[in-house]
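Subject: sequence -> structure tokens, single chain

Hey, anyone have a minute? Need the predicted structure for the following. Not urgent.
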Amino acid sequence: MTVQRQLSRQWVPMLGGSCDVRMGEDALHSAAKVLRDSVGRPHVCVVVVRSDEDAALIEDIRRQVVDAGFAYELCALQPSCRTLAAASVLCDVLVEAHVTSDDLCFAVGDADLISVASFVCGAWCDGMPLVAMPLDEVGLLEGALVPRALGVGDAPRMLFVRPAVRHAILDLTRALGALGDEMSRHARVLMAGAAMASSEKEFSALWDRAADLMSDDGAVLCTQLIATAKARGKLAASTAAAMRCSLRYGQSFARALEALVPHAAFSTLLAEGMRFCARIAVAQGKLPLDDMLAQDELLEMLGIDVLHARVSPDGLLAAFEGERCMRSRRNMLEVPLAIGRVRLATVEDDLLEEHVRAWCMSHDALT
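Reply:
Had a minute. Here:
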């Protein structure tokens, strides 16, 4: 893949302000200036990484932190770290290092790790500066700009996180994976979801770029990453709760499937959730059939396969009901009303059951 060597800079809207995204080959080498510019005067910088992170990368990061004039502190979190317990581990490190609101945190890793850092830094001493370096495309789209919710005990995704990253560094030599990698597929599904929720213009632009994306054109991928980042940022920053909820498009169904088909990649499950919600919308008379078929074709153009699995209809209905009711007492589902408009809508139980059973039957036939 050919990537852009020159460092580019984009301001991406996000809830509560904007994020300065710097993207380019070997962008880590510019980190010292970004870190130094993030605070009035360098004191302590706590670097947050996964405990299994590459030692050579950690050493490169340490050099950038020291070159920027900071005292270096390291916090290593477990790989499965999107929990309140992991946030508590980071808090303990901040206490031991005597970190204040005038110090800095540098989170380097995936979307889960950056989400934990956002949760802690947004509240620490009423807010401390946070710089993030996502190590994959999803880390930028979900971790830095629209953080994932944290789990509490056995309850997943209960604590929603306000974005705290004001500077993000995307080192393209480290962050861009091969087309077949799960993070790359997941990013392409997020691109499709953001286009469906954002506007016809965004959908058409992604449609036109799809072939180049699948030919491994790095320049086009960078252009689309920024476009999707801006689209998701605008939705997250909207004053209308209905627009913010559109970021969850397809997730309720995907999460219900996740427990029943644990071997499946989440990118595939999320795409299935988008397809399912679109079919519900067509059945309700809210979405034109052509728009549903256009979404199907776009996902196919982006290389997202249909799930082949045998799933119990009763089990899926129960899991779906549990997922939808865990965080709200309103029985609603995110459905597209048109390309560029996704909203929460009430779905009758009979219609939902009919479509769940039809989905299970059709996908069972594929196995």
